[in-house]
Amino acid sequence: MAVERGKVGDMWGCLTGESARVQLALLTVQLGYGIYYVLTKSAMSGGVNQFVFAVYRDVIALSLIVPLAYFTEKDKRTPLTLQTSLLIFVLGITGIFLQQTLFLAGLAFTNTAFAAAMQNAIPVFTFLIAVVCKIEVIRFSKPDGLAKVVGILAAVVGSFTMCLYKGTILFGDDPAAGTTQGEQEDVARSSDTDGFLTTLFLGFGIDYWQIGALCLVANCFCMGAYSNLQIPTLRRFPAPISLTALCICVGASALLATGLASVSQASDWVLSSSGNIVSVIYAGAIASGLNFSLQTWANQRGGPVLVAAYIPLQTVFSGFLGLMILDDPLYLGSVIGAALILLGLYLVIWGQSLHRMAQEKELLCTPFSGVLDDTKEPLLKESKSAGTSNHGSVPRS
Questions:
Q1: Mean pLDDT in the chain?
Q2: Integer Cα distance of 275 and 291 in angstroms
Q3: Is the pLDDT of residue 111 over 70?
Q4: Distance CA 43, CA 41 (A)
Q5: Cα 172 from chain centroid?
Q6: Which residue ranges does UniProt annotate as crossing the membrane (predicted)?
């Protein structure tokens, strides 16, 4: 009876306290991104340059989170060493500059449902990078290792399916039916650096949709690298909001320099439409300011795999909103690819759960295992653990 009460207590503990706050934060992040995709796609279709959009977005985000970080994390910030500064620089380039640029380019050439579905590949890239960096461990001879390997392969196949195969339209209308080649080139130039990269890819026989898909794959890799690099950075600089502000500052500086070099007309920096202004404000306040801060905070407490596990919800939110508001088409290839990615994702999560149970039973010593309930053990420790780990410890606030 006491054992049963203990199990009930453990289940209730997962629904309250720190664990509930982390999971509620991640749910809020994915809903925010779902709305962001729809608004951003509308702005890109309206001719807003991707660098202009990203610069304004990050300036708005900085104006909101810098004061918040300054007043709320005075006791958490540590001196910036050379190694910490280099990590922050890399985080700003991968997680802000490249991630935003590649995503906006991919969104401009595809649609909201496809862009959101491709984000499901982020957990796979996150997991692969974690394995290479020895943050995750694969035991190939055990069921948990096999589940992880099969899950990774399924998700990779799903990503390539979405990139290379469109298939028939299940819902919505074909956007190319009423669009001329000249109109497509105008859209390409408005979202690319004077159409240079688009022209280069088109010369190799790659169409607009495939260019967008490749940009989104690269975006997923950048996000996977960003999530994993946050772990060593947060150990040295345990102030998540301040870290987010510094990363956005680095990324915004790179975006501004690139935008000034590539956007030749001053009129491109003027947002004439009220809808575009609303999209930029929402992107800065929610997609950058709120979401990046919440993700960094959740990553500090639950690990990169927990953060990535919630990303499939973007497909549900943005796909529904895009279909209802923008009448975006839904292709058969997107459905097949997304299903494979989701299958792979949950095989990986299941494998991690098996690994965690084996770790508790066999006292395995692994660097870190990001499971759906990692809030029972602090991710950031004062000293390296050797031997058995205390899974009943309370996370630091």
A1: 75
A2: 21
A3: yes
A4: 5
A5: 27
A6: 20-39, 51-72, 84-107, 113-133, 145-165, 241-263, 269-293, 305-325, 331-351
